[in-house]
Write a structure and sequence with these properties.
About 3% of the residues have low confidence. The radius of gyration is 19 Å and the shape is globular. It has 181 residues and is an alpha+beta fold. 31% of the residues lie in helices and 22% in strands. The protein folds into two domains: 101 residues, no CATH class; 70 residues.
Length: 181
């Protein structure tokens, strides 16, 4: 299971599945650290949840939303807690830490700008991180105050909100959002 932010309000239920007390404590810490990270960025993950779309679908509380997410994750004992993109060392149910730390590591690893380009399209606030040559390398969308992954069924976003922002002049000069890359 990933997107540990989705467990907040129900992390105690996930932690009960831990194969060891150490894993139990790591699960609780993942959620605590995620919530602290959001607070430090001026966001309260509990304030905007559930979103209007979730409410229209019948959810009434963050805890209820979290329990639904957790239920979809199965019932097997959790044998390992990983950082994003870390290779598993065990077989069985595995959970991952919040993506925020992973994004910070990507930005540092690839030397991306720490201050992204930002724009809004509908209810999505987009953050575009560029390399030293001003080439966009990472795009993150935030919906209703929450960062979300781009799932395959939403892959139109890759074109509509990333690739279509490139342009090329007659002489072959490449631009992204009006800036030369």
């Amino acid at each position: 299971m990933s997107e540990s932010i989705e467990w907040i309000g129900g992390e105690h239920v996930v932690a009960k599945r831990a194969a060891t007390p150490k894993i139990h404590n790591e699960i609780i810490e993942v959620c605590r650290a995620c919530e602290e990270h959001l607070k430090a960025a001026g966001q309260d993950c509990r304030a905007g949840q559930p979103t209007p779309g979730n409410k229209a679908g019948g959810l009434s509380t963050l805890d209820e939303k979290s329990l639904g997410c957790i239920r979809k994750g199965g019932t097997r004992p959790i044998v390992e807690v990983l950082d994003q993109a870390q290779r598993p060392t065990k077989h069985g149910a595995i959970v991952t830490a919040p993506i925020a730390a992973y994004l910070r590591n990507l930005i540092k690893l690839y030397g991306l700008e720490e201050k992204p380009l930002q724009y809004t399209c509908g209810e999505i606030r987009w953050f575009v991180y560029r390399n030293a040559n001003k080439i966009p390398m990472l795009t993150v969308g935030r919906v209703a105050g929450m960062t979300h992954a781009n799932y395959p069924r939403e892959s139109w976003i890759a074109y509509d909100e990333f690739l279509c922002r490139f342009s090329k002049t007659a002489d072959g000069t490449l631009y992204y959002m009006g800036e030369k890359v």
